[in-house]
Protein backbone atom coordinates (compact mmCIF):
# COMPACT_ATOMS: atom_id res chain seq x y z
CA UNK A 1 0.00 0.00 0.00
CA UNK A 2 1.33 3.43 -0.87
CA UNK A 3 0.27 6.99 -0.25
CA UNK A 4 1.13 10.55 -1.03
CA UNK A 5 0.08 12.50 2.02
CA UNK A 6 1.02 15.82 3.57
CA UNK A 7 -0.27 17.75 6.59
CA UNK A 8 -0.22 21.50 6.89
CA UNK A 9 -1.20 23.77 9.73
CA UNK A 10 -0.54 27.41 8.86
CA UNK A 11 -3.05 29.99 10.04
CA UNK A 12 -6.04 27.71 9.74
CA UNK A 13 -8.21 26.55 12.58
CA UNK A 14 -7.10 22.98 12.02
CA UNK A 15 -4.92 20.91 9.75
CA UNK A 16 -5.54 21.03 6.05
CA UNK A 17 -6.06 17.49 4.85
CA UNK A 18 -6.55 16.36 1.29
CA UNK A 19 -6.39 12.85 -0.14
CA UNK A 20 -5.56 12.19 -3.78
CA UNK A 21 -8.52 9.93 -4.49
CA UNK A 22 -11.49 10.20 -6.80
CA UNK A 23 -14.31 9.37 -4.39
CA UNK A 24 -15.10 10.18 -0.81
CA UNK A 25 -15.08 6.54 0.17
CA UNK A 26 -11.93 4.55 -0.30
CA UNK A 27 -11.01 1.13 0.99
CA UNK A 28 -7.34 0.24 1.42
CA UNK A 29 -6.12 -2.97 -0.13
CA UNK A 30 -5.33 -5.92 2.06
CA UNK A 31 -1.75 -4.93 2.84
CA UNK A 32 0.22 -4.08 5.93
CA UNK A 33 0.27 -0.42 6.88
CA UNK A 34 3.21 1.43 8.41
CA UNK A 35 2.26 4.86 9.71
CA UNK A 36 5.23 7.20 10.16
CA UNK A 37 5.50 10.87 11.07
CA UNK A 38 8.30 13.41 11.25
CA UNK A 39 8.64 16.94 12.66
CA UNK A 40 5.06 16.73 13.92
CA UNK A 41 4.14 19.83 15.89
CA UNK A 42 0.70 20.78 17.21
CA UNK A 43 0.07 24.25 18.58
CA UNK A 44 -2.97 25.56 20.42
CA UNK A 45 -4.34 28.65 18.70
CA UNK A 46 -5.43 29.94 22.11
CA UNK A 47 -2.22 31.07 23.73
CA UNK A 48 0.08 29.51 21.10
CA UNK A 49 1.05 26.70 23.43
CA UNK A 50 2.86 23.74 21.89
CA UNK A 51 0.89 20.60 22.60
CA UNK A 52 3.27 18.37 20.61
CA UNK A 53 6.85 19.44 19.94
CA UNK A 54 8.61 18.17 16.82
CA UNK A 55 7.76 14.47 17.14
CA UNK A 56 9.13 11.73 14.91
CA UNK A 57 8.10 8.09 15.05
CA UNK A 58 6.42 5.20 13.33
CA UNK A 59 4.00 2.36 14.02
CA UNK A 60 3.59 -0.77 11.94
CA UNK A 61 1.44 -3.89 12.12
CA UNK A 62 0.88 -4.75 15.75
CA UNK A 63 -0.60 -3.36 18.94
CA UNK A 64 1.01 0.00 19.75
CA UNK A 65 0.39 1.93 22.96
CA UNK A 66 0.86 5.64 23.58
CA UNK A 67 1.45 6.26 27.28
CA UNK A 68 2.20 9.27 29.39
CA UNK A 69 0.94 11.31 32.35
CA UNK A 70 -2.10 13.56 32.07
CA UNK A 71 -1.41 16.46 29.74
CA UNK A 72 1.53 14.72 28.06
CA UNK A 73 -0.14 14.86 24.64
CA UNK A 74 -1.34 11.27 24.18
CA UNK A 75 -4.77 12.06 22.76
CA UNK A 76 -3.38 15.01 20.82
CA UNK A 77 -0.86 12.74 19.06
CA UNK A 78 -3.54 10.14 18.33
CA UNK A 79 -5.95 12.77 16.98
CA UNK A 80 -3.22 14.42 14.93
CA UNK A 81 -2.36 11.12 13.26
CA UNK A 82 -6.06 10.41 12.70
CA UNK A 83 -6.68 13.93 11.38
CA UNK A 84 -9.23 14.65 14.14
CA UNK A 85 -7.73 17.64 15.87
CA UNK A 86 -10.06 20.23 17.36
CA UNK A 87 -10.50 23.53 15.55
CA UNK A 88 -8.45 25.23 18.25
CA UNK A 89 -5.21 23.56 17.14
CA UNK A 90 -2.89 23.88 14.16
CA UNK A 91 -0.60 21.13 12.95
CA UNK A 92 2.66 21.10 11.01
CA UNK A 93 4.69 18.12 9.91
CA UNK A 94 4.58 15.10 7.67
CA UNK A 95 2.73 11.84 8.05
CA UNK A 96 3.29 8.92 5.69
CA UNK A 97 1.82 5.57 4.94
CA UNK A 98 4.37 3.01 3.81
CA UNK A 99 7.06 5.68 3.41
CA UNK A 100 5.09 7.86 1.00
CA UNK A 101 4.01 11.42 1.65
CA UNK A 102 0.34 12.30 1.32
CA UNK A 103 -2.33 14.65 2.66
CA UNK A 104 -4.81 13.31 5.16
CA UNK A 105 -8.18 14.66 4.11
CA UNK A 106 -9.86 11.28 3.84
CA UNK A 107 -7.79 9.22 6.23
CA UNK A 108 -11.07 8.39 7.95
CA UNK A 109 -11.95 6.44 4.81
CA UNK A 110 -8.80 4.35 5.14
CA UNK A 111 -8.88 3.81 8.89
CA UNK A 112 -11.19 3.46 11.88
CA UNK A 113 -11.33 5.43 15.10
CA UNK A 114 -12.81 4.20 18.39
CA UNK A 115 -13.57 7.06 20.77
CA UNK A 116 -12.98 6.93 24.51
CA UNK A 117 -16.71 7.17 25.25
CA UNK A 118 -18.82 4.39 23.78
CA UNK A 119 -21.42 6.50 21.98
CA UNK A 120 -24.15 4.08 20.97
CA UNK A 121 -27.90 4.17 20.41
CA UNK A 122 -29.49 2.82 23.57
CA UNK A 123 -32.67 1.64 21.82
CA UNK A 124 -31.11 -0.86 19.42
CA UNK A 125 -29.79 -4.34 20.03
CA UNK A 126 -26.16 -5.25 19.40
CA UNK A 127 -27.06 -6.94 16.12
CA UNK A 128 -29.26 -4.03 14.98
CA UNK A 129 -26.47 -1.58 15.76
CA UNK A 130 -24.09 -3.54 13.55
CA UNK A 131 -26.74 -3.99 10.86
CA UNK A 132 -27.40 -0.28 10.47
CA UNK A 133 -23.68 0.49 10.59
CA UNK A 134 -23.08 -2.09 7.86
CA UNK A 135 -25.88 -0.71 5.68
CA UNK A 136 -24.44 2.79 5.96
CA UNK A 137 -20.72 2.05 5.75
CA UNK A 138 -20.39 -0.84 3.32
CA UNK A 139 -20.56 -0.16 -0.44
CA UNK A 140 -24.09 -0.10 -1.88
CA UNK A 141 -23.12 -2.97 -4.17
CA UNK A 142 -22.74 -5.25 -1.12
CA UNK A 143 -25.37 -7.98 -1.24
CA UNK A 144 -27.53 -8.92 1.73
CA UNK A 145 -25.64 -12.21 2.05
CA UNK A 146 -22.28 -10.45 2.07
CA UNK A 147 -23.51 -7.91 4.61
CA UNK A 148 -24.78 -10.62 6.95
CA UNK A 149 -21.49 -12.50 6.57
CA UNK A 150 -19.53 -9.36 7.46
CA UNK A 151 -21.67 -8.82 10.56
CA UNK A 152 -21.13 -12.43 11.64
CA UNK A 153 -17.41 -11.96 11.03
CA UNK A 154 -17.11 -9.01 13.42
CA UNK A 155 -19.38 -10.65 16.00
CA UNK A 156 -17.05 -13.65 15.95
CA UNK A 157 -13.98 -11.45 16.19
CA UNK A 158 -15.32 -9.43 19.14
CA UNK A 159 -17.05 -12.36 20.89
CA UNK A 160 -20.49 -10.76 21.07
CA UNK A 161 -22.58 -13.87 20.30
CA UNK A 162 -24.19 -14.11 23.72
CA UNK A 163 -25.54 -10.53 23.70
CA UNK A 164 -26.37 -10.02 20.04
CA UNK A 165 -30.10 -9.68 20.76
CA UNK A 166 -29.67 -7.55 23.89
CA UNK A 167 -30.48 -3.85 23.84
CA UNK A 168 -27.42 -1.63 24.15
CA UNK A 169 -29.11 0.28 26.95
CA UNK A 170 -28.17 3.44 28.85
CA UNK A 171 -27.50 4.50 32.46
CA UNK A 172 -31.28 4.57 32.97
CA UNK A 173 -32.05 1.43 30.99
CA UNK A 174 -30.33 -1.88 31.63
CA UNK A 175 -28.39 -3.19 28.66
CA UNK A 176 -25.03 -4.69 27.79
CA UNK A 177 -22.03 -4.35 30.10
CA UNK A 178 -19.22 -1.81 29.80
CA UNK A 179 -16.86 -4.33 28.26
CA UNK A 180 -19.49 -5.41 25.74
CA UNK A 181 -20.11 -1.76 24.83
CA UNK A 182 -16.41 -1.30 24.14
CA UNK A 183 -16.26 -4.47 22.04
CA UNK A 184 -19.34 -3.32 20.14
CA UNK A 185 -17.65 0.01 19.41
CA UNK A 186 -14.65 -1.90 18.06
CA UNK A 187 -16.91 -4.24 16.07
CA UNK A 188 -18.59 -1.31 14.33
CA UNK A 189 -15.22 -0.04 13.16
CA UNK A 190 -14.14 -3.49 11.97
CA UNK A 191 -17.01 -3.73 9.49
CA UNK A 192 -14.96 -2.01 6.79
CA UNK A 193 -11.93 -4.24 7.50
CA UNK A 194 -9.56 -1.34 8.20
CA UNK A 195 -5.82 -1.95 8.27
CA UNK A 196 -5.28 1.06 10.54
CA UNK A 197 -7.22 1.44 13.80
CA UNK A 198 -7.03 4.28 16.35
CA UNK A 199 -8.41 3.89 19.88
CA UNK A 200 -8.60 6.60 22.53
CA UNK A 201 -8.35 5.15 26.05
CA UNK A 202 -10.03 1.80 25.24
CA UNK A 203 -9.81 0.66 28.89
CA UNK A 204 -11.23 3.83 30.44
CA UNK A 205 -13.98 3.10 32.96
CA UNK A 206 -13.55 -0.68 32.77
CA UNK A 207 -12.56 -2.98 35.61
CA UNK A 208 -9.28 -4.88 35.33
CA UNK A 209 -10.71 -8.12 33.94
CA UNK A 210 -12.86 -6.39 31.32
CA UNK A 211 -9.98 -4.10 30.35
CA UNK A 212 -7.77 -7.15 29.94
CA UNK A 213 -10.32 -8.88 27.68
CA UNK A 214 -10.57 -5.79 25.45
CA UNK A 215 -6.79 -5.54 25.11
CA UNK A 216 -6.48 -9.27 24.39
CA UNK A 217 -9.03 -8.77 21.60
CA UNK A 218 -7.00 -5.89 20.16
CA UNK A 219 -3.77 -7.89 20.23
CA UNK A 220 -5.48 -10.83 18.52
CA UNK A 221 -6.77 -8.51 15.80
CA UNK A 222 -3.31 -7.05 15.32
CA UNK A 223 -1.75 -10.50 15.00
CA UNK A 224 -4.39 -12.30 12.94
CA UNK A 225 -5.22 -9.47 10.56
CA UNK A 226 -1.82 -7.75 10.59
CA UNK A 227 -3.57 -4.49 11.49
CA UNK A 228 -1.74 -1.42 12.69
CA UNK A 229 -3.48 -0.55 15.96
CA UNK A 230 -2.62 2.58 17.96
CA UNK A 231 -4.22 3.31 21.30
CA UNK A 232 -3.72 5.78 24.10
CA UNK A 233 -3.71 4.35 27.58
CA UNK A 234 -3.02 6.02 30.91
CA UNK A 235 -1.71 3.41 33.31
CA UNK A 236 -2.21 -0.22 32.24
CA UNK A 237 -1.82 -3.24 34.47
CA UNK A 238 1.30 -5.39 34.12
CA UNK A 239 -0.64 -8.01 32.13
CA UNK A 240 -2.00 -5.43 29.71
CA UNK A 241 1.44 -3.83 29.41
CA UNK A 242 2.86 -7.16 28.30
CA UNK A 243 0.38 -7.30 25.39
CA UNK A 244 1.81 -4.29 23.57
CA UNK A 245 4.11 -4.84 20.62
CA UNK A 246 5.39 -1.28 20.73
CA UNK A 247 5.35 1.57 23.23
CA UNK A 248 5.52 5.35 22.95
CA UNK A 249 6.20 7.29 26.14
CA UNK A 250 5.25 10.97 26.05
CA UNK A 251 6.14 13.67 28.52
CA UNK A 252 5.51 17.37 28.05
CA UNK A 253 4.52 16.95 24.40
CA UNK A 254 7.70 15.08 23.50
CA UNK A 255 8.48 11.42 22.88
CA UNK A 256 10.96 10.20 25.49
CA UNK A 257 10.87 6.59 24.36
CA UNK A 258 9.63 4.46 21.48
CA UNK A 259 10.26 0.80 21.02
CA UNK A 260 9.58 -2.58 22.59
CA UNK A 261 7.99 -2.24 26.06
CA UNK A 262 10.49 -4.65 27.63
CA UNK A 263 13.32 -2.56 26.19
CA UNK A 264 11.94 0.50 27.96
CA UNK A 265 12.33 -1.16 31.33
CA UNK A 266 15.90 -2.21 30.47
CA UNK A 267 16.95 1.21 29.16
CA UNK A 268 15.49 3.04 32.13
CA UNK A 269 17.41 0.67 34.38
CA UNK A 270 20.62 1.39 32.47
CA UNK A 271 20.16 5.08 33.22
CA UNK A 272 19.76 4.55 36.92
CA UNK A 273 16.05 3.89 37.24
CA UNK A 274 15.60 0.13 37.64
CA UNK A 275 12.12 -1.27 38.10
CA UNK A 276 11.73 -2.35 41.75
CA UNK A 277 10.75 -5.97 42.42
CA UNK A 278 7.02 -6.78 42.35
CA UNK A 279 6.31 -3.44 40.67
CA UNK A 280 4.18 -2.96 37.59
CA UNK A 281 6.61 -1.84 34.84
CA UNK A 282 4.03 0.61 33.50
CA UNK A 283 3.65 2.21 36.94
CA UNK A 284 7.43 2.49 37.25
CA UNK A 285 7.84 4.19 33.87
CA UNK A 286 5.01 6.59 34.65
CA UNK A 287 6.54 7.42 38.02
CA UNK A 288 9.85 8.30 36.39
CA UNK A 289 8.41 10.63 33.75
CA UNK A 290 5.44 12.03 35.66
CA UNK A 291 5.70 15.71 36.69
CA UNK A 292 3.91 14.81 39.92
CA UNK A 293 7.02 12.95 41.13
CA UNK A 294 9.45 15.78 40.44
CA UNK A 295 10.99 15.56 43.89
CA UNK A 296 12.02 11.97 43.14
CA UNK A 297 13.00 11.90 39.48
CA UNK A 298 13.97 15.48 38.63
CA UNK A 299 17.32 14.31 37.22
CA UNK A 300 15.58 11.91 34.85
CA UNK A 301 13.35 14.54 33.27
CA UNK A 302 16.18 17.05 33.10
CA UNK A 303 18.27 14.62 31.08
CA UNK A 304 15.61 13.07 28.80
CA UNK A 305 16.98 14.95 25.81
CA UNK A 306 20.36 13.34 26.37
CA UNK A 307 19.08 9.79 26.70
CA UNK A 308 19.26 7.43 23.76
CA UNK A 309 15.84 6.00 24.52
CA UNK A 310 14.32 6.18 21.07
CA UNK A 311 14.77 4.30 17.90
CA UNK A 312 17.15 5.72 15.26
CA UNK A 313 15.72 8.70 13.33
CA UNK A 314 13.40 7.78 10.48
CA UNK A 315 14.72 8.68 7.05
CA UNK A 316 11.91 9.30 4.59
CA UNK A 317 12.43 8.71 0.91
CA UNK A 318 10.37 11.09 -1.17
CA UNK A 319 8.38 9.26 -3.78
CA UNK A 320 5.93 10.69 -6.23
CA UNK A 321 3.57 7.79 -6.73
CA UNK A 322 0.06 8.04 -5.37
CA UNK A 323 -1.86 5.69 -3.15
CA UNK A 324 -3.59 3.06 -5.25
CA UNK A 325 -6.93 2.42 -3.63
CA UNK A 326 -9.72 -0.01 -4.15
CA UNK A 327 -12.27 2.78 -4.54
CA UNK A 328 -15.77 2.11 -3.34
CA UNK A 329 -18.91 3.96 -4.17
CA UNK A 330 -20.56 5.92 -1.41
CA UNK A 331 -24.09 5.07 -0.41
CA UNK A 332 -26.50 7.32 -2.38
CA UNK A 333 -28.27 10.03 -0.39
CA UNK A 334 -31.75 8.55 -0.75
CA UNK A 335 -30.63 5.09 0.37
CA UNK A 336 -28.95 6.66 3.39
CA UNK A 337 -32.20 8.46 4.10
CA UNK A 338 -34.21 5.23 3.94
CA UNK A 339 -31.78 3.37 6.21
CA UNK A 340 -31.74 6.21 8.73
CA UNK A 341 -35.53 6.55 8.54
CA UNK A 342 -35.89 2.86 9.35
CA UNK A 343 -33.43 3.28 12.22
CA UNK A 344 -35.38 6.24 13.61
CA UNK A 345 -38.66 4.36 13.16
CA UNK A 346 -37.38 1.43 15.17
CA UNK A 347 -36.15 3.79 17.85
CA UNK A 348 -39.58 5.42 18.03
CA UNK A 349 -41.17 1.98 18.37
CA UNK A 350 -38.88 1.18 21.29
CA UNK A 351 -39.93 4.46 22.90
CA UNK A 352 -43.62 3.57 22.66
CA UNK A 353 -44.24 4.54 26.27
CA UNK A 354 -43.24 8.11 25.50
CA UNK A 355 -45.46 8.20 22.41
CA UNK A 356 -48.37 6.70 24.35
CA UNK A 357 -47.90 9.26 27.12
CA UNK A 358 -48.02 12.09 24.57
CA UNK A 359 -51.22 10.69 23.10
CA UNK A 360 -52.88 10.28 26.51
CA UNK A 361 -51.72 13.76 27.45
CA UNK A 362 -53.42 15.16 24.34
CA UNK A 363 -56.64 13.29 25.06
CA UNK A 364 -56.62 14.38 28.70
CA UNK A 365 -56.16 18.04 27.79
CA UNK A 366 -58.85 17.80 25.11
CA UNK A 367 -61.27 16.37 27.68
CA UNK A 368 -60.43 19.06 30.24
CA UNK A 369 -60.77 21.87 27.72
CA UNK A 370 -64.00 20.37 26.41
CA UNK A 371 -65.32 20.06 29.95
CA UNK A 372 -64.54 23.67 30.89
CA UNK A 373 -65.91 25.09 27.62
CA UNK A 374 -68.60 22.47 27.07
CA UNK A 375 -71.09 23.33 24.30
CA UNK A 376 -70.52 27.08 24.27
CA UNK A 377 -73.41 27.59 21.85
CA UNK A 378 -74.04 30.65 19.66
CA UNK A 379 -75.47 33.16 22.11
CA UNK A 380 -73.86 36.48 23.02
CA UNK A 381 -72.22 34.78 25.99
CA UNK A 382 -70.39 32.44 23.65
CA UNK A 383 -68.41 35.38 22.21
CA UNK A 384 -66.41 35.65 25.43
CA UNK A 385 -65.66 31.91 25.33
CA UNK A 386 -65.08 31.15 21.65
CA UNK A 387 -61.88 33.13 21.06
CA UNK A 388 -60.23 32.25 24.41
CA UNK A 389 -60.76 28.52 23.88
CA UNK A 390 -59.42 28.70 20.31
CA UNK A 391 -56.34 30.56 21.53
CA UNK A 392 -55.83 28.09 24.37
CA UNK A 393 -56.03 25.14 21.97
CA UNK A 394 -53.23 26.67 19.90
CA UNK A 395 -51.10 27.31 22.98
CA UNK A 396 -51.71 23.81 24.31
CA UNK A 397 -50.71 22.06 21.09
CA UNK A 398 -47.63 24.20 20.67
CA UNK A 399 -46.15 24.00 24.13
CA UNK A 400 -46.53 20.24 24.56
CA UNK A 401 -45.03 19.56 21.15
CA UNK A 402 -42.11 21.90 21.75
CA UNK A 403 -41.20 20.66 25.21
CA UNK A 404 -41.21 17.04 24.08
CA UNK A 405 -38.73 17.91 21.31
CA UNK A 406 -36.34 20.26 23.07
CA UNK A 407 -33.88 17.53 24.05
CA UNK A 408 -34.00 15.77 20.69
CA UNK A 409 -30.81 16.95 19.00
CA UNK A 410 -28.65 17.76 22.07
CA UNK A 411 -29.19 14.22 23.36
CA UNK A 412 -27.88 12.78 20.09
CA UNK A 413 -25.27 15.40 19.25
CA UNK A 414 -22.23 13.43 20.43
CA UNK A 415 -23.50 10.26 18.74
CA UNK A 416 -24.01 12.01 15.42
CA UNK A 417 -20.59 13.67 15.68
CA UNK A 418 -19.01 10.23 16.03
CA UNK A 419 -20.96 8.81 13.12
CA UNK A 420 -20.23 11.82 10.95
CA UNK A 421 -16.53 11.64 11.79
CA UNK A 422 -16.58 8.06 10.55
CA UNK A 423 -18.23 9.16 7.30
CA UNK A 424 -21.35 7.06 7.84
CA UNK A 425 -23.83 9.44 6.21
CA UNK A 426 -24.61 12.90 4.92
CA UNK A 427 -25.84 15.23 7.66
CA UNK A 428 -28.79 16.20 5.47
CA UNK A 429 -29.86 12.56 5.18
CA UNK A 430 -29.76 12.15 8.97
CA UNK A 431 -31.67 15.38 9.56
CA UNK A 432 -34.34 14.56 6.98
CA UNK A 433 -34.83 11.04 8.35
CA UNK A 434 -35.04 12.15 11.98
CA UNK A 435 -37.45 15.01 11.34
CA UNK A 436 -39.63 12.80 9.14
CA UNK A 437 -39.86 10.07 11.78
CA UNK A 438 -40.64 12.53 14.55
CA UNK A 439 -43.16 14.46 12.45
CA UNK A 440 -45.16 11.30 11.86
CA UNK A 441 -45.47 10.90 15.63
CA UNK A 442 -46.51 14.54 16.08
CA UNK A 443 -49.27 14.19 13.48
CA UNK A 444 -51.22 11.71 15.57
CA UNK A 445 -51.76 13.64 18.82
CA UNK A 446 -53.34 16.78 17.22
CA UNK A 447 -55.80 14.59 15.31
CA UNK A 448 -56.99 12.84 18.47
CA UNK A 449 -57.00 16.13 20.39
CA UNK A 450 -59.16 17.82 17.73
CA UNK A 451 -61.54 14.87 17.47
CA UNK A 452 -62.39 15.18 21.16
CA UNK A 453 -62.08 18.92 21.88
CA UNK A 454 -63.83 20.25 18.77
CA UNK A 455 -67.13 18.47 19.32
CA UNK A 456 -67.13 18.83 23.11
CA UNK A 457 -66.62 22.59 22.84
CA UNK A 458 -69.45 22.83 20.35
CA UNK A 459 -67.69 24.69 17.57
CA UNK A 460 -69.45 24.98 14.20
CA UNK A 461 -70.81 21.49 13.38
CA UNK A 462 -69.49 21.51 9.84
CA UNK A 463 -67.05 18.77 8.84
CA UNK A 464 -65.04 21.08 6.58
CA UNK A 465 -64.43 23.48 9.45
CA UNK A 466 -63.44 20.56 11.68
CA UNK A 467 -60.85 19.58 9.06
CA UNK A 468 -59.53 23.16 8.99
CA UNK A 469 -59.33 23.20 12.80
CA UNK A 470 -57.44 19.88 12.80
CA UNK A 471 -55.03 21.06 10.09
CA UNK A 472 -54.19 24.19 12.06
CA UNK A 473 -53.63 22.15 15.21
CA UNK A 474 -51.19 19.99 13.22
CA UNK A 475 -49.46 23.04 11.73
CA UNK A 476 -49.29 24.69 15.15
CA UNK A 477 -47.70 21.56 16.63
CA UNK A 478 -45.19 21.25 13.79
CA UNK A 479 -44.34 24.96 14.03
CA UNK A 480 -43.62 24.66 17.76
CA UNK A 481 -41.67 21.44 17.21
CA UNK A 482 -39.64 23.10 14.45
CA UNK A 483 -38.89 26.08 16.70
CA UNK A 484 -37.77 23.68 19.43
CA UNK A 485 -35.58 21.81 16.94
CA UNK A 486 -33.92 25.05 15.86
CA UNK A 487 -33.25 26.04 19.47
CA UNK A 488 -31.98 22.58 20.45
CA UNK A 489 -29.71 22.39 17.38
CA UNK A 490 -28.09 25.72 18.22
CA UNK A 491 -27.80 25.28 21.99
CA UNK A 492 -24.85 23.41 23.46
CA UNK A 493 -26.84 21.02 25.64
CA UNK A 494 -30.27 20.15 26.97
CA UNK A 495 -29.90 22.41 30.02
CA UNK A 496 -29.37 25.44 27.81
CA UNK A 497 -32.23 24.45 25.50
CA UNK A 498 -34.78 24.18 28.30
CA UNK A 499 -33.82 27.69 29.46
CA UNK A 500 -33.90 29.35 26.03
CA UNK A 501 -36.98 27.68 24.53
CA UNK A 502 -39.56 28.87 27.14
CA UNK A 503 -38.54 32.47 26.42
CA UNK A 504 -39.36 32.01 22.73
CA UNK A 505 -42.63 30.27 23.58
CA UNK A 506 -43.70 33.09 25.90
CA UNK A 507 -42.95 35.68 23.22
CA UNK A 508 -45.02 33.77 20.65
CA UNK A 509 -47.88 33.55 23.13
CA UNK A 510 -47.71 37.22 24.17
CA UNK A 511 -47.85 38.35 20.55
CA UNK A 512 -50.25 35.61 19.46
CA UNK A 513 -53.09 38.01 18.63
CA UNK A 514 -55.33 37.29 21.62
CA UNK A 515 -54.02 39.47 24.45
CA UNK A 516 -53.58 42.33 22.00
CA UNK A 517 -55.53 42.25 18.75
CA UNK A 518 -53.50 42.86 15.56
CA UNK A 519 -55.49 46.03 14.90
CA UNK A 520 -54.30 47.48 18.22
CA UNK A 521 -50.60 46.60 17.91
CA UNK A 522 -48.09 49.45 18.11
CA UNK A 523 -45.38 49.88 15.51
CA UNK A 524 -42.59 48.34 17.62
CA UNK A 525 -44.72 45.25 18.25
CA UNK A 526 -45.29 44.45 14.57
CA UNK A 527 -42.05 42.42 14.08
CA UNK A 528 -42.95 40.26 17.08
CA UNK A 529 -46.48 39.79 15.73
CA UNK A 530 -45.13 38.56 12.42
CA UNK A 531 -42.66 36.14 14.07
CA UNK A 532 -45.27 34.49 16.32
CA UNK A 533 -46.48 31.17 14.93
CA UNK A 534 -49.32 31.29 17.49
CA UNK A 535 -50.70 34.39 15.78
CA UNK A 536 -51.16 32.59 12.48
CA UNK A 537 -52.56 29.45 14.10
CA UNK A 538 -55.00 31.48 16.16
CA UNK A 539 -55.99 33.73 13.25
CA UNK A 540 -56.56 30.73 11.01
CA UNK A 541 -58.88 28.85 13.38
CA UNK A 542 -60.60 32.08 14.50
CA UNK A 543 -61.38 33.06 10.91
CA UNK A 544 -62.67 29.57 10.15
CA UNK A 545 -64.96 29.56 13.18
CA UNK A 546 -66.19 33.16 12.86
CA UNK A 547 -66.89 33.14 9.14
CA UNK A 548 -70.50 32.14 8.56
CA UNK A 549 -71.21 32.09 12.30
CA UNK A 550 -74.70 33.35 13.21
CA UNK A 551 -75.05 34.64 16.76
CA UNK A 552 -78.28 34.97 18.67
CA UNK A 553 -79.52 36.51 21.88
CA UNK A 554 -81.38 34.86 24.69
CA UNK A 555 -84.36 36.64 26.22
CA UNK A 556 -82.23 37.71 29.16
CA UNK A 557 -79.55 39.09 26.82
CA UNK A 558 -82.15 41.02 24.83
CA UNK A 559 -83.60 42.43 28.04
CA UNK A 560 -80.22 43.94 28.89
CA UNK A 561 -79.96 45.86 25.61
CA UNK A 562 -81.28 49.44 25.28
CA UNK A 563 -83.21 48.96 22.07
CA UNK A 564 -83.95 45.24 22.27
CA UNK A 565 -81.66 44.45 19.34
CA UNK A 566 -78.90 41.85 19.41
CA UNK A 567 -75.55 43.77 19.45
CA UNK A 568 -73.54 41.07 17.65
CA UNK A 569 -75.31 38.90 15.12
CA UNK A 570 -72.43 37.44 13.12
CA UNK A 571 -68.87 36.34 13.53
CA UNK A 572 -67.84 38.76 10.78
CA UNK A 573 -68.45 41.66 13.16
CA UNK A 574 -65.83 40.20 15.54
CA UNK A 575 -63.41 39.70 12.65
CA UNK A 576 -63.76 43.36 11.64
CA UNK A 577 -63.52 44.66 15.20
CA UNK A 578 -60.34 42.75 16.08
CA UNK A 579 -58.69 42.99 12.68
CA UNK A 580 -58.41 39.24 12.29
CA UNK A 581 -58.99 39.34 8.55
CA UNK A 582 -55.57 40.72 7.60
CA UNK A 583 -54.69 37.31 6.12
CA UNK A 584 -57.00 34.67 4.73
CA UNK A 585 -57.21 31.17 6.18
CA UNK A 586 -55.03 29.81 3.37
CA UNK A 587 -52.50 32.63 3.82
CA UNK A 588 -52.21 31.89 7.54
CA UNK A 589 -51.58 28.24 6.73
CA UNK A 590 -48.98 29.26 4.15
CA UNK A 591 -47.13 31.45 6.64
CA UNK A 592 -47.08 28.57 9.13
CA UNK A 593 -45.60 26.26 6.49
CA UNK A 594 -42.96 28.90 5.72
CA UNK A 595 -42.23 29.26 9.46
CA UNK A 596 -41.80 25.49 9.77
CA UNK A 597 -39.49 25.43 6.76
CA UNK A 598 -37.31 28.30 7.98
CA UNK A 599 -36.98 26.84 11.48
CA UNK A 600 -35.97 23.47 10.07
CA UNK A 601 -33.38 25.10 7.83
CA UNK A 602 -31.95 26.83 10.90
CA UNK A 603 -31.99 23.52 12.76
CA UNK A 604 -30.18 21.80 9.90
CA UNK A 605 -27.51 24.51 9.73
CA UNK A 606 -27.04 24.19 13.49
CA UNK A 607 -26.59 20.42 13.24
CA UNK A 608 -24.32 20.77 10.21
CA UNK A 609 -21.98 23.51 11.36
CA UNK A 610 -22.21 23.91 15.15
CA UNK A 611 -20.16 21.26 16.95
CA UNK A 612 -19.42 23.05 20.22
UniProtKB/TrEMBL annotation:
Stored Pfam families: ABC2_membrane, ABC2_membrane_7, ABC_tran
Record's subcellular location: Membrane
Keywords, comma-separated and alphabetical: ATP-binding, Membrane, Nucleotide-binding, Transmembrane, Transmembrane helix, Transport
Keyword field contains Transmembrane: yes
One Gene Ontology MF term: ATP hydrolysis activity
SUPFAM superfamilies in UniProt: P-loop containing nucleoside triphosphate hydrolases
Transmembrane segments: 359-377, 389-409, 440-457, 463-487, 499-520, 585-607
Domain ABC transporter, residue spans: 35-277
Membrane topology recorded in Swiss-Prot or TrEMBL: Multi-pass membrane protein
GO cellular component: a single term: membrane
PANTHER family: ABC TRANSPORTER G FAMILY MEMBER 28 (PTHR48041), PROTEIN SCARLET (PTHR48041:SF139)
Protein name in UniProt: ABC transporter domain-containing protein
Organism: Chlorella vulgaris (Green alga)
Amino acid sequence: MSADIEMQGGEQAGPTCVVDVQTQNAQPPDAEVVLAWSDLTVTSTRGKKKLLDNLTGQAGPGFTAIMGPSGAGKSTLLNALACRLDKGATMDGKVRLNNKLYELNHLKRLSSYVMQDDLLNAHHTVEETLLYAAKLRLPPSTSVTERVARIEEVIDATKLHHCRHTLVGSPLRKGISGGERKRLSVAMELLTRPMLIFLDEPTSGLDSSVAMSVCVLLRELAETRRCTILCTIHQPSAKIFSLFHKLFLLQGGKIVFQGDPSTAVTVFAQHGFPCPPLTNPADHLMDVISPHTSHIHVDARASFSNWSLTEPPIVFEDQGSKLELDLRERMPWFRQYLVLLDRCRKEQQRKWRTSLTQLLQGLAMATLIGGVFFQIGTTQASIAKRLPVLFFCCINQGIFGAMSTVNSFPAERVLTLRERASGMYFVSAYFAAKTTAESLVYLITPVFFSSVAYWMIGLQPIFGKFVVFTCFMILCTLAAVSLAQAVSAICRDVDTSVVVLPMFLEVTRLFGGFFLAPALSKDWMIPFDYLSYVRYSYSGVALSQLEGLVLTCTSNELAKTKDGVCPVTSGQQTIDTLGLGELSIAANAGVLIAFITICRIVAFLGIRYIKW
